[in-house]
Amino acid sequence: MSGKDRTTLRLRLTATAETIVRKGHPWVFAQSVREENRPGVTGELAVIYDRSDRFLAFGLYDSQSPIRVRILHSGKPRQIDSAWWQNHAAKAIALRQSQFDSQTTGFRCINGESDGWPGLVLDQYDTTRVLKLYTAAWLPRLEETIGLLQGQARLVLRLSRNIQKQAHDEFDLSDGQILRGAPVEGPVVFLENGLRFEADVLRGQKTGFFLDQRENRRNVEALAQGCSVLNVFSYSGGFSLYAARGGAKSVFSLDISEHALAAARRNFALNQDQPPVAQCRHETVQADAFMWLRNSPEQRFDLIVLDPPSLAKRQSEKDDAIAAYTKLIEASLARLSKNGVLVAASCSAHVPAEDFFTLARATARKSGRRFDELRTTRHPSDHPATFPEGEYLKCIYFRFMD
Question: What is the CATH number of domain 82-188?
Fold first, then answer.
């Protein structure tokens, strides 16, 4: 893909930023740009040179973002032509093809910076793919990008909230727009480890489903036999449905959104042909999780899953997030039965994994209950994280003996 015919945009960075890029970090912030040979245009390729005028990297320029350049390639110089772009897309997508069989038709195909596609995510739900953009730098290149993503009947565009106005005003693009294929008639149904789920690809969170928790859902399934289960922040019931298939005797799905709970009920209905699911008593509870755990009638559960939305969307919120996670774990332990299992997850990138695990262990010790730590998990294979800001997902499992 190439921009309009113009003099190559050449940048030089501060010494600190130069070192960071050389180590493989995919972002160059505006304040790190020391020199430009001309004003850059959003979406064009910027070539970065070091202090000795040697090639350092190239990436997509975004004139309006604090992240001024998102790195596509660093190291040795490369010719950027159509063949490079085709190979770049094929390499990322091919990595996933061998990871999943016919029982899993929902997975991530391209994971942004960690796959060399900064600010771009591509998810697959059966024969529908969803392309989500987090930077305006891809907007001028959208038509060429679509051409690289072959092989599916439908392609849906999702746009991060911060670029929706620019996409509409400058490119006549909108969130949920169909880029290729037939209109979406209701939720798209896909398989995950043999379970049917619906994805709201037009308006749902992320690209329509939380694909990144697939492995943790399967872990919960293996722990659920004979259990009463509480799924806190249940969204569309992913953990709930896996627990039901795992032989749970009852599952409570707790979420503040009735829209999400309705999706959970539909997902259970999609799987009534599976005897364990049909036999499991599933109840949905619409409530604020913090208040419900603190104030509702005392009821104990054998297995509790805590999977809240991001509680720290910026670094300044980290301390408040840690306090909130602590309160959630404390309140959940008050509801956990003897020999019960607590599964606590975090998707807050500003709360590093070791900080989260440390607070969870400290809260478990503070309870005075005897416990074993069963495991910790991080990102699944189709959601690799190759730089610190990309490392957001972590989960810890405890069993409490008394």
Answer: 3.30.750.80
